[in-house]
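Methods: example folding runs. The two proteins below were folded one after another, and each record is reproduced exactly as written to the output file, sequence line first and structure-token line second.
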Amino acid sequence: MLERFLFDGPHDAKVTILLAHGAGAPMDSPAMTASAAALAAQGFRVARFEFGYMATRRTSGERKPPPRAETLIPEYRMAVAELGANGPLIIGGKSMGGRVASMVADELHSAGKVAGLVCLGYPFHPPGKPAQLRTRHLAGLVTPALICQGTRDQFGTREDVVGYALSENIQILWLEDGDHDLKPRKSISGFSAADHIRTMAEAVKAWASQLQG
């Protein structure tokens, strides 16, 4: 059984990043592990956690559909409280994990508990259903945010997202030919998955250096 949090990076890091997993893969998935390692290499203390339904899968073996993202907000709040980070805290996650973090970000930011939001592959809409947008709360987001998105992400391509009404507090890092895991087709893009993960981490470091609190 895994611990409540998986940690990467120096214990005395100035900034901590709390990451939740996506809807279908756990906190120790290859994509989450690679992202956490890259962020740790940039000097962040990275903590990963799992929502209850995913933790249950480990013991039951059943793969029930994930709950609605909105119902996971209390669990994200609890993770922030349990983590008890010293110094600035950035919250976020992979896909659905980032979406849940984005729903609670302004509440925690206004309370002085978080400094920013990082989303790795934001699920702007379900694959193949571009009309079912998950962006309403992003239009008025107050929390400084960085979304790292592959240009061919089936949950929101660059062509899709350019027309969305998003808060001016949201910055987007576009990774050429990246999919939902930020992974490009090397033969087409000339980049590797490792290249994009490293670029993501470097961008998060540069962005985080501008945050207050």
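Second run, written to the same file directly after the first:
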Amino acid sequence: MQRACAAALLHHGRTILHNPGSSDDDKAALGIIHQLGALSHKEGEDLVITSKGVKPIGNALHCGESGLSIRMFTPLAALSDHETNITGSGSLLTRPMDFFNDILPQIGVDVKSNNGHIPLLIQGPLKPATITVDGSLSSQYLTGLLLAYSSLGAKDVTIHVTDLKSRPYIDLTLDVMQKFGMKMPENHDHQSFVFDGKDAPDNSADIEYTVEGDWSGGAFLLVAGAIAGPVTVRGLDLNSTQADKAIIDVLISCNAAFAVEAKGIIIHPGEMRAFNFDATDCPDLFPPLVALAAYCKGTSTITGVSRLTTKESNRALTLQQEFGKMGLNIQLEADKMIIESTGSLKGAQVHSRHDHRIAMATAVAALRAEGPTEIGEAEAVGKSYPAFFRDIVSLQAKVSGLPHYKLPE
């Protein structure tokens, strides 16, 4: 949804988004494109965005708590020659943004930061040039640069990339770009992206784009089904380029009982075995995978812990501590998370640390725990999945204490 908002901003004309998202991060992206000159309105269930490109109506952008938004939209805001103050809230205040201090001056953009943190003060216009970016920090920076270079019809320049993590997220960006008719770079095995001398295509016609179902949120429902189902999950595209589709590989590995049918993915509880999985390219799967591993008797190992330190919380430590309260033994060794499970958990008082995925992971784990589980700041789920607890209640779980969610009877 956020990538579609960015592409719609860059599209000169109307974009009709089917199945638009409504999470806090989605609202942040919509707010940003409004500040950058786009208009939007609802038509039934669709969202219609009209844009003439980046034409800021003010000098401030607020990115909420969205790491993707600030990393993706900062290069897009720099397409203008307006001085822009880019801010955010919550955990975004502590996330490092040194990348922009290093890269933006190389492409003609003045930038000032708060010792490598927000607020950022930038002034373009951005001028595409051949650069080398560190892909180990976050693929989201590269997403913003690809979109910006494409929108300018960049010619005879290359973005070189070292040590790219989360390749599937770049594939998702390229997929969105292609569906919006944007100028596509030559992709040389994700190590370089070459913008040739060809003219950009004419993309003035109306564009219709359907926002895919979210595998990141769907992963929690699939794990819920494996733990305490049966559950049928609809709306997930098995041909998606989303990184978190890899949850299917893990469910196969741990011998979860599921079937893919025309009406959706049907998953049942059953005896599951411990698993080993490398989540380096899909770090957002760590929380649901820990909930899953808690009911896979034995020792499970998840690799990619280094990707967790700059999320909404330090997720490695948060998962270790909060699941520890429920009786799960988690050890952190270098880049590995080692989970020793007896196959059961106990209900406990836990806390989300204001991290949406921790709230969902502990809620899913609580479905088969012995006794009730109380989750502090559970409303954090609104960041990515506002309807999470409504959906959990629809699966016959008992949830109380969140009246503003208007939980069904």
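Comment on the second run: The chain has a mean pLDDT of 94.
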